[in-house]
Amino acid sequence: MTGRHSNEIDEQEPVTEPLVVRDRRKIDPETGQVRTQPEAAEAPAAEAPATQAGPSLGESIVDDAVAAPSEVEKELAERTADLQRLQAEFANYRKRVDRDREAVVSAAKASVVNELLPLLDDFERAEQHGDLTGAFKAVADKLVASLQRIGLEPFGAEGEPFDPSVHEAVQHNTSPEVSGPTVTTVLRRGYRFGERTLRAALVGVTDHEPGEAPVEGELPVEQLSDENAQQ
């Protein structure tokens, strides 16, 4: 069996490709005429990439690759906006509550301090008469320091410009020594607590009085006095 298979392989002729010879001579060797050159075979043009034309009239320009937002995404966006709005409202509410709480606490403190103002007036009168001494003075000083520490502020002193919003004038004088309405007498001290005026100060006010101009041809009174003294 092996010998017969070998004989069959030997009897097969080898397969060879046919040899093709192309005569590219420009002059025919037999006729001596110039041969006409065959047109070169045009190489198949490479397929140019197709240019993407713009959308035609009535055609949608939405890219199909971009998917429209689903219902879940829309609902998520709505819930996120609602949450942000609630957070902003809660922040405003908390600020308003804190502001109202501070106002209530300040009003309560001012009410208590206002009830103690007559006591402070007694301390001040006792000090002016020299009766505020010893342990009584120590207690008064501690009370005044505590009230000032929580926000009580006295005002109304001699030499202050007159302010009708915080000063109540009960006396009025004129003098050339002041340039404008000035507090010259304090009958009762005023107090404010924070930005709230608890009590206006009772004061005496002195307004500016211009000096009399000398009559033409006459000397001022002071200058006449000096000349008489020299004589």
From TrEMBL:
Record family assignment: Belongs to the GrpE family.
Keyword Cytoplasm listed: yes
Name of protein: Protein GrpE
Highest taxon of source: Bacteria
Coiled coil: 76-103
Stretches the record annotates as Disordered: 1-57, 206-231
Localization in the cell: Cytoplasm
